[in-house]
Amino acid sequence: MILSEDYLQNLFDKTLPHLHSAADCGVVLEGSIAEGFGNSSSDIDFLLIADSDADLPTMPSLLFLDGRRVEVRTRSVRQLAEQFSAITTAAHGGPGAIPEDLLNRCQRLLHSFPLRNGELVAKVKGLMSVDDFRTTVREWWAHHARQSMRYALVLRELGQDEEAAAWTEAGLLQAVKSWAAGRGETYLEPKWLPMQLDRIGDDPLSARYRTLASLDASGLDPAAYLTEGARLMADLGVSGAAPGAGQITVARADGVTTWQTGDRVHVVRGKQDVFVLGDRAARAWRSLVFGRPLDLVLAAADAAGAPQAGPLIARFLRFGLVKAAWKGDGPIVPAMPLAAPPGAVTPPPSTARPLVALGGAVAGDADAIDLVPVPARRFSAAAMILVWSNVLVENAREDLVGALDREQWSVAELSARRMLRFALRGVLSAYGVNPLPPDSEVVRALSLLPAGAHMDGIQAEARRLETLTIDSVAGGSAALTALDGFVALVRQATGAHGFPSSFGSSDGWRQTLEIGYDWLRLGAHLDADLPLDEASDLLSSGGAQPHVATT
Q1: pTM to 2 decimals?
Q2: Which one of 7, 28, 411, 451 has the minimum C-beta count within 10 Å?
Q3: Which domain CATH number covers 80?
Q4: Are 163 and 226 in contact (CB under 8 A)?
Q5: Whether residue 332 has pLDDT greater than 50
Q6: Could you tell me what percent of the chain has a pLDDT over 90?
């Protein structure tokens, strides 16, 4: 230790008055100072062990005494026994199943320095064999090293050289920590690794690691660095990560579903996030065959019109839309212990506006893998309303034409207002507004939307049309022309310019059902509210009219 036992005993005496009760507790010093590391800025970490089965708080108390920061934790004997038992239980699921914090807490106690009630401390430490724990830590680090190096190999194959080098560096650190743990250096915190290697003493493997500790220090290019790193990792005793053809495959990610509307491909993650793919990204996505070796996947993407698709597939991988797997050994799940937790990355949401057009979400460019900036359920609900609003526009127009033909001016005015408001429902839905405001407020609700070339014209024309009157043939004709022009403007802005005349022919109605069915399937998958009760019948019929015989 860098501090004397007398100093630590004296410091604990100063700590006692600040504690509720420490009578008969075992007291140990744990952490970097107990391990023989540390410096003048290191915490003084006291653990109090109560000879009871009480549930003591996990959260530490911080005190500032004698110019040092003192951290006090408490555990009961029962809690510590359960802690050691949990290590054994978790290890049955493989070394990667052991939680990092649990391993760290057990390690700190086993290598702690006793200060009070040594018999109780010895009793607790005797709950786990030091040799068994050393093996557990060695295998734990080896598991993470193996996963990191495998991931580096994936990234190299995808053309991500710098990222591959970074994961090689992580894998080497984990591998040498595994090697050091086999020699008794089980302290988990990586920042003390240089001192752990110093304590082990001169060794060719340690010297090689110091040379390869980082890409910059090695003087190698990324490809050579990975090659040398993989060789050193094997020499450090970590097997199962050697480069080899066909070892890496592409695997399906749990909870990820593909939905296509027209030509637009969407990928839904965990029923929460919607990613929209640009044209080239969509071709790369469609070319994926799960279970196929990665090199063949890249060749298939090239043949499908997405050459050099490695960076795109790397983004699919980072976003958790696919997985990489090691042949015969399951998914590759890299992690950096004592760092950020592993898991899929969520990119910043797309800034494209509107969010959704009739044919799907708006993608930034051909390589886009854009996160739609609304939850999946709201996205699908808004898209369904966008379709349905266009159906209602067609219905209201039919009513308007009929009223004008019979010179029913009041009916015509009401139909014209409905046509306007239904069109605005589509505008608001295209921008992700869901639930919608009442129809009486839709014109004013346009102020919620970002300004733009389309929106300025739509808002001005909507205010004008809101007050139109129809009391003559000429007025009715002018109103219909104005409303048709407004609907065309709205449909251009929301990608619905090709929407069929739903009620003009059987073919038009068939096309309408086909458009609606694509979105209804997605909405049903996400448990979104359907726009009307009849929509469930369309789903159950597979997109066909329920009473018409098919040929």
Answers
A1: 0.85
A2: 451
A3: 3.30.460.10
A4: no
A5: yes
A6: 68
Residue 244 lies in a domain: no
DSSP notation for 43-80: -EEEEEEESS-----SS-EEEEETTEEEEEEEEEHHHH
Is residue 243 a contact partner of residue 234, using CB atoms and an 8 Å limit? no
- Residue 189 CA to residue 432 CA, distance in Å, equals 46
Query: If you average pLDDT over residues 230-236, what whole number do you get?
Result: 96
- Please tell me the total count of domains within the chain: 4
Q: Do both 113 and 218 map to the same domain?
A: no
Residue 251 CA to residue 534 CA, distance in Å, equals 38
Residue 185 domain boundaries: 135-235
- The CA-atom distances, in angstroms, between 426 and each of 6, 355, 375, 418, 494 are 77, 12, 18, 13, 8
Label each residue of 354-384 as H, E or C.
CCEECCEECCCCCCCEEECCCCHHHHHHHHH
Percentage of the chain lying above the pLDDT 70 cut: 93
CA distance 517 to 511: 10
Q: Is residue 194 part of a domain?
A: yes
Strand order, beta sheet including 273-277? 256-261, 264-269, 273-277, 369-371
pLDDT digits (tens, 9 = 90+) for 486-505: 999 999 988 887 787 766 67
Is residue 313 within 8 A of residue 301, CB to CB? The reply is yes
CA 300 to centroid of chain Cα atoms: 27
User: Is 80 exceeded by the pLDDT of residue 267?
Assistant: yes
Q: What are phi and psi of 306, to 5 degrees?
A: -125, 65
Give the C-alpha separation, 354 to 427, whole Å: 9
Q: What is the pLDDT of residues 421-460, one digit of tens each?
A: 999 999 999 999 999 999 999 999 999 888 775 788 899 9
Q: Is residue 99 part of a domain?
A: yes
Tokens of 486: 């407004």
Q: How confident is the model at residue 290 (pLDDT cuts 50, 70, 90)?
A: very high
Sign of CA dihedral 394, 398, 404, 405: positive
Tell me if 322 sits within 8 A of 251, measured CB to CB: yes
pLDDT digit string, tens, across residues 348-406: 999 988 898 888 898 989 999 999 999 999 998 888 888 888 888 988 999 999 999 99
Q: How far apart are CA 467 and CA 480, in angstroms?
A: 14
